[in-house]
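>> Question from a student workshop board

For tomorrow's exercise we were told to take the sequence and the ligand below, predict the bound structure, and bring the output to class. My setup keeps failing. Could a helper post the expected result so I can at least see what it should look like? The ligand is SUD.
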Amino acid sequence: MKIYEKAPAKINLLLDVLRKREDGFHEVEMVMTMVDLFDRLEMEELERDTIVISSQAGYIPLDEKNLAFQAARLIKERYRVPKGVYIHLDKKIPVAAGLAGGSSDAAATLRGLNRLWGLRIPLDELSRLGGELGSDVPFCVTGGTALATGRGELLQRIGNPPQCWVILAKPPINVSTADVYGRFRVNQLNTHPSLARMMAAIEGGSFTAMCDALGNVLESVTLSLYPEVRQLRSSMRQLGADGVLMSGSGPTVFGLVAKQAKAERIYNGLRGYCKEVYVVRMLT
Ligand SMILES: C[C@@](CO)(OP(=O)(O)O)[C@H](O)COP(=O)(O)OP(=O)(O)OC[C@H]1O[C@@H](n2ccc(N)nc2=O)[C@H](O)[C@@H]1O
Ligand SMILES: Nc1ncnc2c1ncn2[C@@H]1O[C@H](COP(=O)(O)OP(=O)(O)O)[C@@H](O)[C@H]1O
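>> Workshop helper replied:
Here is what the output should look like for this input. Compare the format with yours to find the bug.
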């Protein structure tokens, strides 16, 4: 039997870091949501007890370093499934972009294999299992819009953000999340974004208030390391985006606008010097 699973990209509408923990991770507060830019996974059961990954993308590992491989191995071992699986990843989400492409592939693998092997694992259990693979995986398992705390694995579902268009632009550099967190110093921050304002904006359905409440403290690291990200952020703003922010540890910058025509104008303006630009919507 063959099954298909979609793996959407995420953006962080708010990302605050509260402190560095003893285990090396950072305690965060994040408001995360999904957008309609997807990787597509095809999974087929194998009688042979092996995990095989393929992809049209030449720039990701296909061995045990692949997060989909790790997800398949984890669920197989934990639930003692004596079967194998072939997983094809049709990659559309840019890699190492701050859009959680790998984490979402891992999450889609957990959801897909739960179905393929008839395991009937409840979604919250699957989400907890995802936490063993990475901090963003639990959110990617459940999707929607959520407030994520802890190292990102503690989730509280919140309402949908006001509908709008999202322009994603990724400069041609790869950013390591570990490196960005490693360079981050919480005591060098002058301000923190207001979670209360973001929550009120979403609850009240106010697009303008949501744009005003956007904030990501990791910009302090990535923007100073990579001037091209800072430049892209300014261009997005100059071209008329109502809200602009870097997603996660970067380097993808997103712009929010209410009208499709404006999104298309910004897309055309950016395409001149940025190859990877997408116009998407938030998934509600
Ligand atoms: C920054 C964020 C925001 O959503 O996303 P991306 O930019 O990766 O998309 C996440 O916090 C990234 O989550 P994820 O990519 O799953 O990170 P992990 O694999 O768990 O961790 C990679 C490394 O980042 C650091 N890390 C991660 C999460 C966290 N709360 N504190 C940390 O210090 C650790 O050094 C860890 O070794
Ligand atoms: N299925 C996958 N898709 C993308 N990257 C993957 C995958 N599996 C492992 N990786 C590795 O994970 C790292 C982070 O990739 P990604 O999840 O796209 O980053 P980010 O969380 O910043 O968006 C990359 O170095 C990549 O080689």
